[in-house]
Write a structure and sequence with these properties.
Structural class: alpha/beta
Helix content: 40-55%
Shape: globular
Radius of gyration: 17 Å
Number of strands: 8
Distance between the termini: 9 Å
């Protein structure tokens, strides 16, 4: 199982910024410490090119990001100040999901971006800690390279994948499925191909029942050659930005359901980590690590 990491590409943030950047390096450390992965499983991704990014983003927006021409308002919407590090990290994050998709399709099983899941980035703007939409870019890249014709994006982050839904609206070859908190960010939702909205406090039993139904519908309608899975840790009950009530066991079962539906149909899966803002960062790291370890075990 190939794992693509970007934590060596530093994103400078102001003191007190609430985005937990350290979770990415700690995730890689936790996976190595588990004894289930060797150093050879970890790979640096390429930086997504302008051509690859333009498969999902407006060329003028790409230029503004890369040349440092984002307005103060645009930077505020993203949540990060512009820096050369922000550009490099964002390119590499999109590149990592492209690499994970290529790897999963090549070996016919599973690969992962140990970051990514930047699903709030729209074609011509970013928001919610998201600059480039790695899932949309990677899906279109696989099509452009002739590796996959039909793709299913399963978004289990607690926040709706509004940017993904907007970019891919009307594209019958890429099916977007988002299961998320109804009253959480973004407060104005886009229309995915399939949206399941959950009430605050929704726990394991109800969540998993809705997910099972949603996955059955999504796979039947999408008929995919590839699944891109956004495995957000933020449905966790002690997530600062989550508002749902899932336990560690519930989140692990969520992952098993996604993987089981894919394996039963022989469909490769590329994983991206998406959100995670637990009050204890060790909880976020443990949830993400469980996702990767389960994938490795189920495809071994």
């Amino acid at each position: 199982m190939q794992l693509f990491y970007t934590d060596v590409f530093v994103l400078p943030l102001p003191a007190g910024h609430r985005f937990p950047m350290e979770k990415y390096s700690r995730l890689r450390e936790a996976l190595l410490a588990s004894g289930e992965f060797s150093i050879g499983d970890f790979h640096l991704p390429h930086a997504a090119s302008d051509t690859e990014l333009a498969l999902a983003h407006d060329p003028d927006y790409i230029r503004q990001v890369c040349c440092g021409q984002l307005s103060e308002k645009a930077q505020k919407a993203i949540g990060f100040p512009w820096s050369a590090g922000m550009v490099e990290r964002s390119r590499r994050s999109a590149g990592a999901t492209i690499c994970a998709c290529r790897s999963a399709l090549t070996i016919g099983s599973v690969a992962a971006n140990l970051a990514g899941g930047t699903h709030h980035a729209f074609r011509d703007r970013g928001e919610g800690f998201c600059v480039f939409n790695d899932a949309a870019v990677a899906a279109r890249a696989m099509q452009a390279e002739g590796r996959a014709e039909r793709i299913l994006i399963v978004d289990c982050d607690v926040h709706q994948g509004n940017g993904t839904a907007s970019i891919l609206a009307g594209d019958g070859s890429i099916f977007t499925f988002s299961i998320h908190g109804a009253r959480n960010f973004p407060f104005t939702k886009e229309n995915s191909d399939l949206d399941i909205e959950l009430p605050d406090g929704c726990g394991d039993e109800a969540y998993l029942a809705h997910l099972c139904d949603g996955l059955a519908t999504a796979f039947d309608l999408a008929r995919p050659d590839l699944v891109i899975y956004l495995a957000g840790a933020d449905p966790y009950h002690d997530d600062r930005l989550g508002r749902l009530g899932l336990s560690f066991a519930g989140l692990a079962e969520r992952d098993r359901q996604v993987f089981a539906h894919s394996r039963a149909r022989g469909i490769p899966v590329a994983i991206a980590m998406a959100g995670g803002y637990a009050r204890q960062i060790d909880d976020t790291v443990a949830i993400h690590a469980t996702t990767i370890r389960l994938a490795r075990q189920l495809w071994r």
